[in-house]
Amino acid sequence: MNTEKVTARRLTAGEVAELGLQDTIFVSAEMAGLPLDCYAPAFLTEPGKNSEGGSFAAKTVFGDEIHVLPDNAEERGIWIADKAGEEIEVLKSAGVLLNLALFVPDGNRESLESLYSAARDAFGAGIVQRWSEEVVEVPDVKVDLFEEPARGRKNTSGQNRDRRALDIYPTRVRFLEPSDGWRFIVEPHKEIVDETPTI
Questions:
Q1: Got the DSSP string for 81-114?
Q2: How far apart (Å, rounded) are the C-alpha atoms in residues 62 and 70?
Q3: What pLDDT is recorded for position 149?
Q4: What is the Cα–Cα distance from 158 to 148, expressed in whole angstroms?
Q5: How many CB atoms neighbour CB 60 within 10 A?
Q6: What is the spatial distance between Cα 37 and Cα 42, in angstroms, rounded to a whole number?
Q7: Does residue 15 or residue 187 have the better pLDDT?
Q8: Does the N terminus or the C terminus of the chain have fewer Cβ atoms within 10 A?
Q9: Mean pLDDT over each residue of the chain, to the nearest integer
Q10: Can you tell me the distance from the alpha carbon of 49 to that of 26, in angstroms, rounded to the nearest whole number?
Q11: Is the pLDDT of residue 189 over 90?
């Protein structure tokens, strides 16, 4: 866990009410019930003046939303960087979690081990980890995955439909979610042939 020392001071509810969405604050780094004895960089989810009842909602740079009562002595409160303040421990936001689904043509256990070893060599043995692994044989084919509005317009031909397309291997569908108000349509892949005359 990488942390850094930051000089900051705790804000009262009145001071938090004057903050906007662009102001960087620090809130408890506790996530999903995991007690971490440090703070995380965050931003208010709405301007402080719009909060009601003295409770403020903030979202950390790690994507966790937290509700704080700044004047409650039993909570860690909301802090802001201030050279005249005191030192607090802050989680560094340096790192990216990648969820990967790999398609390996003619894949076997040896090729998967080679991929894993190469990733560990590139990023470090302590960085690359396999959290779960599922080996599934899939046909080496492509499909066209389209997104269409969930409520399609009647009497429209397939050519005029609003669509967003990706050429993908079919197994990737399991790892994707359609956009709000859209649904997935899967069709056999058709190569796009450019028949534009050339000189």
A1: E-TTSEEEEEE-------------TT--HHHHHH
A2: 21
A3: 81
A4: 11
A5: 22
A6: 16
A7: 15
A8: C
A9: 79
A10: 18
A11: no
Please list the residues that pair with 68 across neighbouring strands. Answer: 56
Strand order from edge to edge, sheet including 143-149: 164-168, 143-149, 182-188
Distance CA 29, CA 93 (A): 11
pLDDT per residue over 98-133, tens digit each? 777 677 777 677 888 888 889 888 888 777 777 777
SS3 117: helix
Q: Which amino acid is at 129?
A: Q
Can you read off the two tokens belonging to residue 59?
């979202």
**How many Cα atoms occupy the beta-carbon half-sphere of 59 within 13 Å?**
7
Least confident residue range of 61-65, 122-126, 170-174:
170-174
What is the pLDDT confidence band of residue 140, given thresholds at 50, 70 and 90?
low
Distance, CA of 189 to CA of 4 (rounded, Å): 50
